[in-house]
Amino acid sequence: MKNVIATFVLTAFAALSMQAQTVTGKWKTIDDETGKAKSIVEISENNGKLYGKVIEILTDKKDAKCDKCPGADKGKPIKGLTIIKGLKKDGKEYSGGTITDPGTGKEYKCALKLNGTDKLDVRGYVGIQALGRTQTWVRVK
After folding, report:
1. Where are the beta strands (DSSP E) in the chain?
2. Is the CB of residue 109 less than 8 Å from the CB of residue 117?
3. Do residues 83 and 53 make contact, with C-beta atoms less than 8 angstroms apart?
4. Is residue 14 a part of any domain in this protein?
5. What is the pLDDT of residues 62-121, one digit of tens each?
């Protein structure tokens, strides 16, 4: 009986450790200028690629629309908008996809990399990664 309990505890601990080491899950975005939380983005995997959807807006702009977004996203509510699209695992980071800034409607190349277990470095850039900026998002527990 002790072996069964020990096995269960170790399995549960391993599962929690694996969750902490993945970029999938819910992340709180932080405004660069104010340092305040802006939204919650849920990152999920579909067919080996990552996508991130705004699931909650934490500011007073809860009904804002992406009026400057290109294409099919133009005029859609920011809440529910998929802003990260098509990233693939590349070593310790995910890249090869895009991120949209709903405030400006601009689309950038994107790279994600875990920074510890509860922080995610999100880099948006034009051309090469050196020509961009990084935001650090915090995991929502």
Report:
1. 25-30, 37-46, 49-57, 82-90, 93-100, 107-114, 119-125, 132-139
2. no
3. yes
4. no
5. 999 999 998 999 999 999 999 999 999 999 999 999 999 998 999 999 999 999 999 999
Q: Kind of pairing, strands 119-125 and 93-100?
A: unpaired
CATH (domain of 35): 2.40.128.520
pLDDT grade for 8, boundaries at 50, 70 and 90: very low
**Residue that the structure tokens 């070593």 belong to:** 91
- How many residues can be counted in the chain? 141
Q: Rounded to whole angstroms, how far apart are CA atoms 63 and 68?
A: 15
Selection from 138, 50, 59 nearest residue 103 by Cα: 59
11 within domain boundaries: no
pTM: 0.83
Distance (Å, whole) CA 106 – CA 47: 26
